[in-house]
Every structure is written in structure tokens, then in C-alpha cells.
């Protein structure tokens, strides 16, 4: 007989739903994943999507806490969870959470709210949990945490708290340009809308060179970003630039421009990359070419650690 | 009885087909337009789309020359027309053209080829004809010609020839971001994929201020382009930024970044804007804020003048 979960950790993003069935000692009983992200669900479909994924791990005789982070708490999500203000850390009772009334008596869902910055205006939902996870593992860290993805976040951390952050639509721009713009004609064995579309072809050595060379150009002359995009198409038309090379250049161009715009975060001090391995490698390589040594942390592990940290604070508060 | 056309001028772009029925003195008998642009047509559908639009102006007893410019000559178009190299002007026999065998005996179509630049690689199809039209009207002009649109072109003109140019995907980026990215949520009474999506709301005075203020920011700090995009979404979420204002800011951000990247074209010397009126006004305003006085020229008139110039050269050559 399967051990039933003591609680469930959920990372519910725009395009994916991930869950961990946890025991009483916060050890993982099972890792679960489904494509039913927020974008694919209407409000009344969230509970069903969750039960479909985790139902087999729920005890019938008691109510299991389900702690969710991510876009599930957005206005278009399951239930809107308010934003917390900066500086943001883990303090009992401070994190903005909402409980969701569930019709299935086996679950008691809580959604962790995101974080807002008033000036310049910015928001995050989910990344704050990864940063809290990272800080739980590295309580003395001071510096910048970069979380590359569809919407890359750069955050400055001081005294165990997020004090400032900025969002870059780098991954989304890559997907739009590679799949929907005129550039798609030269990238045609592409691509998928996945966050990792950047690195689909990182096995090709020449692409690493294309990536590195374009990243350097983009960092040196970030103001020329808009002048360089169409060159990828023209180079394909006139010189037969290969699709994999064109994708590597586009990725380098955008990541290089992001790093130039994010310079205040990584210009001095420590940098931690919380990323999927391949995407993290791209960022680490680009930063290294600028003399910035970034430490790499696994994104999934930080998410679970962050949700666990919040859950323990919630438990403490309730005792 | 309608006077039949002596020849037909055609501007066949990605999303629209425009034609002018012309008399023997190059005066316009009729202006015609259809949404059957290159993107909506398979190779064997071009002739039918053309006949559908201009058929009523064709004489039955003779063959009418049809002179086409634009994306109709692209690889995905009716028939590929080769690129000419720089420097590019109107010289008999030099312009790369292709004739298209038509099954309808009433038409003899010719497609004007585009122009290529080898380093940095770039191409244009259609804009060269507008520039030639502009130069036919202004033979002594020296300086930069800007043709704003889906793919804005900046070209440097010397001695009656295009000597250098650069493409900016400004209009396409605007449409992708306003309609397909996460920013669409804050621009929801938008927008259409039209080239002029930039200026849908230029009637609102506050938007002109939003546009001007963001253009200035973008020109002053073009390297921060990627850092500013998501701010439009966050400002909507946190502060209720209105859709029209968000669109004006996005437009200002992109046009400002383009002008910063195109600085070498407009930093000194004369600037001519060949544009639809409203889009031209946006560019003219942004340039004026930088002390650049740009003269405005009507895009449609320049296109017809350019096609007419080429047709007369072709006629001379054939005589």
C-alpha cells in the first residue's frame, strides 16, 4: 500500500503544473507533473486538474494541506493571492496567502502570493518562492539572484530579503521572434514555446560559438539590439545561415541585451543562477565572458525548498 | 465606356495588394486595393488575385504591361526576382527584374527585384522603389530616407543612389508584443496586425504625452529596452495603466530604441520620412525632440512614382 502524503507542494505556472507528495518529515514521496498550466484552465477547472494529478496520494480520512506557488495565484488563476511588498523574506504571518475553498474534502489548498515592487513597477509570482528556497539553503548570501526563463527575474538580496528586482521578457521574446516573426523562416526546424527553446540545439558546438560571439556583441553595443534582429533573416537569405546557428545568434543577442540592461545587478557582488541546467549554462557562460562567476542552483530543488519553508512557517503560525 | 489601362502599376506586399490603372501619359485612371497580399496566396493564386482586382481595366485586344514591386518577388511570392547590389539607382538594364509568364494573354507582368547589402547583410523589396520615386521628385537630395512600417528601413542616399541601409523590425515587434505577449493583457482593446497598429489611438492627447515621454527615455537609455517592456504589464497590474497609454508607451519605447540604433543615419544631414501620415507623424515628433527636422513624403505617392520611373526605364530599354 502506498504511503499517503502528509502534505502536497505545488508549483503551478503558466504552462505546467508540478507537484510533490511529501511525508511528515518533508521528504518527497512522489514527483508529479502535468501540462495543465494556468493558461489552459478556466477558474472552475483548477481543482479537477489538481485532483487528477495528486489524487492517488491523498488519504481519504483526513484533509491534506496543499501549498501552491506561481501563476495559479494570478487574477486569471484559481484564486487571486495578494502581492507582498518589498523587502520580502519569510516572516510568520507576513506572507500574503489565500486559502481556497475546495469541494473535495480531502484537500485544503493555500496559495502563496507574489511580490510587488512599486517603483519601477514590477511583479513576480513563484520566483519569490525559489529565492526563499535558495536563501533557506544559503542564509548568508548577499548579492543578485537570476532566475532565467520565459520572464527572467533579476533580484537583489540583502539580509535574507529581496530588496529589489526586475523582469526581462527574454524567453518570451525569443519564442515570439523565433516562431511568429519573419525570422521564423530562417529557424524552421525550430522550436516549441517552451522556456528552454533557447537551448534546443546546444549540442552543436558551432552554435556555442555563434551564441558566445553574438552575446559579446550584444553586451558591447546593447543599443543596437533592434538593428541586429533582421540581420538574422538577411543572413539566411543571402548567405544560407543555418537554422541552428540563427537560433543561437538570436539567443545570444537577447541574453546579451538582457545582461547589459541588468548590469546593475551583476556589476559587483555575488551572482546565483537558479535555473534549469542547460539554460543556466548559457547564462553562466555569458556572465563568465564578462568576468562574472555565477554559482548555479537547481531551479526545481529551490522551488520545493521554498514551498517547504513557507509551509513550515504556516504550520508554526497555526500552532 | 471605361478607358482601358495602358499599363498597370502594382505594389504587392506581404499583407496587401494595391494597383493603379494608368493611361499613356502616366496619369492614374483608377486606384485599386485588395487584402490578397503575398502571405495569403499560393504560387498559382497570384495571377487570379491580380486579374480579380484589375481585370475590368484590361483591354481585350492587346497585352497590358503590369509592373509589380514588393514581396511578390520574394522566394515565397509569385516568382523570385533577384536582388540588385548597392549602390542602387535607376539605370536602364541594371535593375534586376523578372518577367512572369501569364496564362491570361491580356497581361505581361514584370516584377522589380529588391536590393541586397552584403555587409552587414540586409535586404529590401519594395522600399527601393519608394526611394527611387522620392529621388525622382527630389533628384538633388542627399541624406537619410526613413520608411517606417512593419519592417522600417533607414537608407542613406548619395548621388541619386542608395549606398547603405538597415532594417528594423519595429512594427512587427510592436504587433507581437501588443497582441501575442503577456503585455496583451494590458492592451486589450487593441489592435489588429496592421502596420499602423502603433497609432491606433493617436487621437488621445494623453497618449501623445506618454509616447513622447517614453520615446525620450528610450533614446536616452536604449540599452534598457529589455528592462522596460515588462514594466508596462506591471504598471497595468499595480496602477491600472490604461490600455491606450500602455500602447503609446510601447510604441514610444520601440520607436525610441529604433531611433537610437539608427543614429548613424540621422545624426547629421537631411532626413526624409516616406510614410503613411499618422505613423510618419510619430516618427517626425520623436526626431524633432532630438533636434532633427524631417521632411514628410507620402508613401503611396512615392511608390507610384517609383514604379512609373522604373516602367519608363524599361520602356526606354526596349525601344
Encode the helix/strand succession of chain A as letters. Answer: EEEHEEEEEHEEEHHHHHEHEH
Give the oligomeric state: homodimer
* Broad CATH class of the largest domain in chain A: Alpha Beta
Distance between the termini of chain A: 31 Å
Description:
2 copies of one chain form a homodimer. Chain A has 319 residues and is α/β, with parallel strands linked by helices. The first copy, chain A, has 2 domains: 1-116, 2-Layer Sandwich (Nucleotidyltransferase, domain 5); 168-298, Nucleotidyltransferase, domain 5, CATH 3.30.420.310. Helix content of chain A is 36%, strand content 22%. Chain A has 9 helices and 13 strands. In chain A, the strands form 3 sheets. Chain A has a 6-stranded mixed β-sheet, with helices on both faces. A 5-stranded mixed β-sheet of chain A has the order 11-10-9-12-13, with helices on both faces. A two-stranded antiparallel sheet of chain A has the order 7-8. In chain A, helix 4 runs parallel beside helix 6 and helix 5 (225-239) runs antiparallel to helix 6. Chain A is globular and about 70 Å long. The model of chain A is unreliable at 190-196 and 199-206 (pLDDT under 50). The interface between A and B is large, with 46 and 46 residues.
Itemize the secondary structure elements and their pairings:
The structure is a homodimer of 319-residue chains.
Chain A: E1 7-12, E2 17-22, E3 28-34, H1 46-54, E4 64-69, E5 97-99, E6 107-112, E7 115-117, E8 122-124, H2 127-137, E9 143-147, E10 152-158, E11 161-168, H3 170-179, H4 205-220, H5 225-239, H6 243-261, H7 263-266, E12 270-275, H8 277-288, E13 294-298, H9 299-318
Parallel strand pairs in A: 1-4, 4-6, 9-12, 12-13
Antiparallel strand pairs in A: 1-2, 2-3, 5-6, 7-8, 9-10, 10-11
Amino acid at each position: 500500500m502506498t504511503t499517503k502524503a502528509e502534505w502536497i507542494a505545488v508549483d503551478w505556472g503558466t504552462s505546467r503544473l508540478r507537484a510533490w507528495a511529501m511525508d511528515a518529515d518533508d521528504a518527497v514521496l512522489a514527483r508529479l507533473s502535468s501540462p495543465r498550466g494556468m493558461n489552459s484552465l478556466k477558474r472552475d477547472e483548477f481543482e479537477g486538474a489538481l485532483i487528477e494529478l495528486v489524487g492517488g496520494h491523498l488519504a481519504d480520512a483526513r484533509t491534506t494541506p496543499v501549498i501552491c506557488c506561481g501563476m495559479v495565484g494570478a487574477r486569471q488563476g484559481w484564486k487571486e493571492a495578494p502581492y507582498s511588498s518589498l523587502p520580502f523574506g519569510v516572516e510568520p504571518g507576513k506572507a500574503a496567502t489565500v486559502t481556497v475553498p475546495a469541494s473535495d474534502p480531502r484537500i485544503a489548498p493555500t496559495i502563496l502570493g507574489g511580490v510587488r515592487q512599486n517603483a519601477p513597477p514590477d511583479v513576480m509570482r513563484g520566483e519569490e518562492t525559489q529565492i526563499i528556497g535558495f536563501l533557506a539553503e544559503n542564509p548568508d548570501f548577499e548579492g543578485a539572484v537570476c532566475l532565467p526563463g520565459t520572464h527572467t527575474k533579476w533580484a537583489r538580496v540583502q539580509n535574507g530579503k529581496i530588496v529589489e528586482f526586475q523582469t526581462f521578457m527574454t524567453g518570451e521574446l525569443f519564442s515570439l521572434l523565433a516562431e511568429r516573426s519573419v525570422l521564423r523562416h530562417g529557424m524552421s526546424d525550430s522550436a516549441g514555446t517552451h522556456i528552454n527553446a533557447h537551448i534546443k540545439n546546444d549540442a552543436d558546438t558551432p552554435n556555442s560559438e555563434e551564441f558566445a560571439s553574438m552575446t559579446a556583441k550584444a553586451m558591447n553595443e546593447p543599443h543596437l539590439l533592434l538593428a541586429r534582429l533582421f540581420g538574422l533573416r538577411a543572413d539566411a537569405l543571402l548567405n544560407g545561415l543555418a537554422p541552428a546557428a540563427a537560433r543561437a545568434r538570436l539567443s545570444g543577442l537577447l541574453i546579451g541585451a538582457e545582461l547589459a540592461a541588468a548590469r546593475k545587478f551583476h556589476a559587483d557582488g555575488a551572482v546565483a543562477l537558479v535555473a534549469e541546467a542547460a539554460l543556466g549554462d548559457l547564462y553562466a557562460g555569458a556572465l563568465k565572458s564578462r568576468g562574472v562567476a555565477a554559482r548555479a542552483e537547481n531551479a526545481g530543488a529551490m522551488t520545493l525548498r521554498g514551498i517547504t519553508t513557507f509551509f513550515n512557517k504556516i504550520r508554526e503560525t497555526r500552532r
